[in-house]
Amino acid sequence: MLVATTVPVFATGTVEIEPQRTVTDALGRSVEIPEDPQRIVAAGRAVLMIADALYMFPGAEDRIIGIGRINQGKGNFLAAIDPDYGEKAVLERNVGAEQIAGLNPDVVILKTFMRGPLGDAVEQIGIPVVYVDLETPEQYQRDLRLLGDVLNQSGRGSELARYYEVEAQRVRRTVDAGLAASSEADAGADDSNAPDAADDIARPSTLFLYADLAGGEQVFNVPPVGWIQTTMVEIAGGDPVWVDSNPGGGWTSVGLEQIAAWNADVITLVAYRQDVSAIRDTLYDTPVWSDLTAIETGNLRIFPVDFYSWDQPDVRWILGLQWLAKTLHPELFPELDVAEEMYDFFSFAYRMSREQVDTVIVPVLEGISR
Fold this sequence. Notes:
2 domains; six-stranded mixed beta sheet; 14 strands; 20% strand; globular
C-alpha cells in the first residue's frame, strides 16, 4: 500500500516541502521514502539477488548510484548489459553506514538479514531503508511488487510477480496432474492389465549437491529444508532425499558414505565459484562414485548456469525450475524447450533481443542444449 505524505526539508532561510510516500517492506514496516527516488543504493550480503531484481524495472539502472560488489560466478551480468555500470559506486561486502551516507541516497535496499549488521545504522543517520527477502517463490511475488512500489512502477511489479506465479504454477500443476493420473492408473490396474509405462510416473529420488573447494579438498553440501533449492525439487516432482539431514540453518556438509546411502536416482550439482562441468566430469571418472545409480544412468546433472547458477534465489530460479521439471519428468513436459524459455525470460525480464542473448548469455551458458 502506498500513502502519500509530505515532510519539511529546511534549506537556508526557507522551508521546502518534499513529497513522500509510504511503502510496506518485507519486515512489515511502514517506510517513508521520497515520492520519486532517484538515488538508490543496493548493498550488503546477497546483493546480487536485489540488483538483478531491480534491473528488471525499466530505467532502474539509471537510479542505482551504489551497488555491492558482485563476485559470484563467471563475472558480472549487470555490467555486461549496462554500459554505464562503471559509473556506479562499488561497495564492499562489509560496507558501513558512513560510506553509504556519503553517496547521499534517497533510499537503501537491503536483504532482511542485514538489518542488524547494517540497516539499523543507516536508518539512525536518517536514510530510509527498505528490506526485501527474495528467498522463496511467495516472497518473490511480494517483493517484486514492493520494488515496483519503491520505483513508482507498480504495474511492472505486478507484471513480474504474476509471471513468476504463473510459470511456477504451470510446473506444479503439470507435475501434480501427472502424478495423480499415474496413481489412479495404478489403483485401477489388475494383474492382467498393468498400466502402460507412460502412466507409471513417480517422484524420482533426487539429491542436490553444492560442491566447494575447502582446504584443498572437494566438499559436498546439501541445502536446508526451507531453502529454494529444496522447494524447487519438490515443485518439479522430485523426492529430496536429504531433507531429514538438514532441517534448518545453512549448508550442511555430507560425505560419500551418506551420498552412497541415499543413492538418488538423480543428482544435481552446482559450484558457485568453480567450474561445475569439470567437477561433474571428474566425478564420472572417479571409481568410488561409479556404483551410484545417478552415475550409472547418466543422471549426474549440472544445474544450468550462465553468469550465475539457476538454482539459487536469483531471478533465474524460475528457469532452473523449468529445467529441473523437464529433467525429472521429460514425459510430462514434451513441449517444454528450456532454451526457448531462456530467450523468452531474458527478453521479458531485461528487454534483451535474441541477438543480445546470443552475444551476452550463450557464450557462458552451461547445462542446457540448444
